[in-house]
Amino acid sequence: AVFWRRTYRLLLLGQKHQSCISSHVICHTENLNQIVRNSLHLSTLVSFHRVMTDQPPILTDLGLYNHPPAVRGMTELDKAAFTQTVNVPALRVPTNVLNKVVKSLKKVVLQRPGIKRVLEENNKDGSSKCEHRLVLLDPSSITSTDSFGSEEAAALKAFGVPQEIQRYELKLTYENLKSDEILRAVLPEGQDVTSGFSRVGHIAHMNLRDHQIPFRKLIGQVIMDKNPGITCVVNKTNTIDSTYRNFQMEVLAGEDNMVAKVRENGMFYEFDFSRVYWNPRLGTEHERIVSFLQRGDIVIDVFAGVGPFAIPAARRGCNILANDLNPESFRWLQHNGKLNKVDKKITSFNMDGRDFIRGPVKERLPALMKGSQKLHVVMNLPALALEFLDAFRDLLEPDQSLSCQDNLPQVHCYGFSKEDDPQRDIVVRAEASLKTSLQGQCSVHMVRNVSPNKEMMCASFTLPKKVLYRQHTEDRDSSEEPCPKKQKCEEQTD
């Protein structure tokens, strides 16, 4: 009992006295081992406080909200079950200096959704006083009169406000809680809590793990409730493994409306999120590539999607050849060109990437290379784009190189890598497809970390002349294999 009382008092002192807590625990190692064996938790301390004082607990740096046990394992959302009354510290402040005091204490006042931090003070007879207000303080910062910093203490002294901490019984409801607090209270103890998502217009896109699936409807509702503007929450139910780079999804909460409206880098896009590929995490990369471009440049977008490279490039004054195999992406690409008033700058195709390179690109490339404008080829299909580089081999005849010696296309090709040295891996794989060395000619940019062991990279290089132009038969390695057949996207392309 002595150990518990001493531990409880030290916990109330907060982070300023962590060394005291550590020393106390070390001195009671046998007691600590007993705690571990009995699997005692913070709730034991809270219950002990209620028994000793018969008052709601003051929760300090351990968290303002200690969820009711009844919500653990909840699969259908019952908002009323989350209601709890806790004690928080408060300061009695004269109304004539209220605004100045609150400004001085901005680092330690209570910040909680839907909670007023300044309250009227009531008499015992229920009437309100006008001379003073109660300012609620953050219990993780203020636990006693000694918790105020030097600047805060000086300000209180200057304004004539006594550093006397009062206790205020605060009622917390579902509306006052954050999404991670709610989900941490509901999901099995010790399991990962997912409150993160990708936002695509009004849609929140989640990738729930197996242990979260039984709670998916509740999770969806919480995410929608706690994020203004979200009216639909979906969960991906399979990897992106189809030819068209879309995936099956389940609506967890809200309206079944998959047509999203998105603004990225000043451009507007509309598309059916359930039928096309869109990654909101690639906005910076789209902007990076477009920043290389100059008015009049030619951009060949082999896997254009709904236009995140093609649309801003066209707005920059470039002429675009944009292709995508997915008929839905092709349709929304054309729509977005008109939406952003750049459709006159974009010639769009609905073909396989390799057929696009060996068809429309091959036909136009000799004439384009004779001009002074720079040529850029964008290949953003990270799961397979490196393998499509072989489509450029022997693309043009030798006699077509006479007047376009120095205007070779600049390629920006994306790929995933799980190797320890992803930059080297990307270059090696590009060289394998092109059947030539890129040493000293290729720069590799790390786009983003997809998962702990998976990187998305972009290799940029000038397409070698000996790759692009057909050589004499005797100069070719007779052991070279024919071009591979068309492939489906079998790896997740997020």
Q: Beta fraction of the residues?
A: 15-25%
Q: Termini distance?
A: 55 Å
Number of strands: 17
Low-confidence stretches: 12-62, 488-494
Looking at the structure, what is the overall shape?
elongated
Share in helix:
25-40%
Q: How many helices?
A: 15
Structural class: alpha/beta
User: How big is the Rg?
Assistant: 31 Å
Main sheet record: 7 strands, mixed
Average residue pLDDT: 82
Q: For the largest sheet, list the strands in their spatial order.
A: 13-12-11-14-15-17-16
Written account of the structure:
The protein has 494 residues and is of the alpha/beta class. It contains 15 helices and 17 strands. The strands form 4 sheets. The chain has a 7-stranded mixed sheet, sandwiched between helices. It has a 4-stranded antiparallel sheet with strand order 2-3-1-4, with helices on one face. Helix 1 packs antiparallel against helix 2. The longest helix has 18 residues, at 353-370. The radius of gyration is 31 Å and the shape is elongated. The model is unreliable at 12-62 and 488-494 (pLDDT under 50).
